[in-house]
Amino acid sequence: MTEGVPGTKSVTLKVQLVGPTNRTVTFAYSTFDAIAVAPTDYASAAGTITIPAVATTASIVIAINGDSANEPDEVIGVSVHNATNATVGGFYGPGSITIVNDDS
Ligand SMILES: [Ca+2]
Ligand SMILES: [Ca+2]
């Protein structure tokens, strides 16, 4: 995603279950500073997500703070833990969001 102008916009990180399951899956997530720094560059977020047995995806929404400074791209880390009825790994292991600087 590109950073955009000063102000807040949200980015959605998709979490995908690999393989069929007929059980409800829950997991906790939390953001951490990689290159981006909260709360300047984004709003840190944490919570628990439940994916019903009939669904295979969930979304984590994170608020990004744009600016007009020329700077390196910023990276937000997202970790997933305490999963029940699923193993964290592969596509739904720790993820990241890159905020691409669009100022010069
Ligand atoms: Ca920035
Ligand atoms: Ca910028």
Give an overview in words.
By secondary structure, the protein is mostly beta strands. It has one domain: Immunoglobulin-like, CATH 2.60.40. 0% of the residues lie in helices and 49% in strands. It has no helices and six strands. The protein has strands at 7-16, 25-33, 46-51, 57-66, 74-84, 95-99. The strands form two sheets. A four-stranded antiparallel β-sheet has the order 3-2-5-6, with no helix packed on it. The radius of gyration is 15 Å and the shape is elongated. The two termini are 17 Å apart. One calcium ion is lined by residues 3, 41, 67, 71, 74. One calcium ion binds at residues 3, 67, 69, 71, 101, 103.
List keywords for this structure.
104 residues; binds calcium ion; two-stranded antiparallel ribbon; single chain; mainly beta; 4-stranded antiparallel sheet; elongated; Immunoglobulin-like
Topology overview:
Elements: E1 7-16, E2 25-33, E3 46-51, E4 57-66, E5 74-84, E6 95-99
Antiparallel strand pairs: 1-4, 2-3, 2-5, 5-6
The structure holds calcium ion (2 copies).
